[in-house]
Amino acid sequence: MTSPASTLSDEHTAISSLIRLLQTEQAKLVAADIEELPAVIAEKAAIVAKMSELASHRQLALMTAGLALEQNGMEQWFAQTGDDAARVLWQELLSLAKSAEELNRINGKLINQHATHNQNALNVLQGIPVGGNFYGANGKSMTKPPTRKLIIG
After folding, report:
1. Is 120 inside any structural domain?
2. For residue 78, what are the CA distances in angstroms to 67, 83, 89?
3. Would you put residue 66 in left (φ > 0), alpha (ψ -120 to 50) or beta?
4. If phi over 0 gives left and psi between -120 and 50 gives alpha, with beta otherwise, what is residue 139?
5. In a domain, 132, yes or no
6. Whole domain around residue 49: which residue ranges?
7. Which listed residue, of 9, 39, 74, 112, carries a Cα 20 to 30 Å from 66's Cα?
8. Phi–psi pair at 135, nearest 5 degrees
9. Cβ proximity of 62 and 68 under 8 Å
């Protein structure tokens, strides 16, 4: 039987790589360097898939040992085995996961800011007022429908 702790080192490595990648993504978002984001996103997806696979192995080992699949299952396993080195690695892993979650949250906000900026720029180009004011003081619509010119040729 495989130990639930057998994947912890690989999980630690993967989450550390994810954090470095999230920091890179954040720097690119702040600098509005969006050309390289697709490669970052692809690499991020590969790391997350690997992390999911490792977590599945750990959960299978917990299930085989008759323990809960959630976080308390690992705590139960530590209590049974007394493996303090694995417990320290597990605690570091949980801490890194929280850091990754926060970085991902911030990156999501940055992405939303870029999307809002882009939508506002499109609205201006289409003659739609920015800020959601669709009616003027006279009660008439301020939005202009897009004009299409008929091309006969």
Report:
1. yes
2. 11, 6, 11
3. left
4. left
5. no
6. 8-125
7. 9
8. -125, 140
9. yes
Please check whether residue 85 lies inside any domain of the structure: yes
Q: What is the pLDDT along the chain (153 residues), one digit of tens a residue?
A: 589 999 999 999 999 999 999 999 999 989 888 898 899 999 999 999 999 999 999 999 999 999 888 778 999 999 999 999 999 999 999 999 999 999 999 999 988 887 776 777 777 777 776 655 555 666 666 555 555 555 665
Tokens 């299409």 sit on residue: 148
Quick one: DSSP state of residue 53?
H
Q: What are phi and psi of 141, to 5 degrees?
A: -60, 135
For residue 139, tell me if it sits in a domain: no
Q: Are 27 and 107 in contact (CB under 8 A)?
A: no
* Chain CA centroid to CA 63, Å: 28
For residue 123, give the 3-state DSSP assignment.
helix
Q: Report the distance separating Cα 138 and Cα 35, nearest Å.
A: 44
CB atoms within 10 A of CB 29: 20
The CB density around residue 6, as the number of other CB atoms within 10 Å, is 14
How many domains would you assign to the chain?
Answer: 1
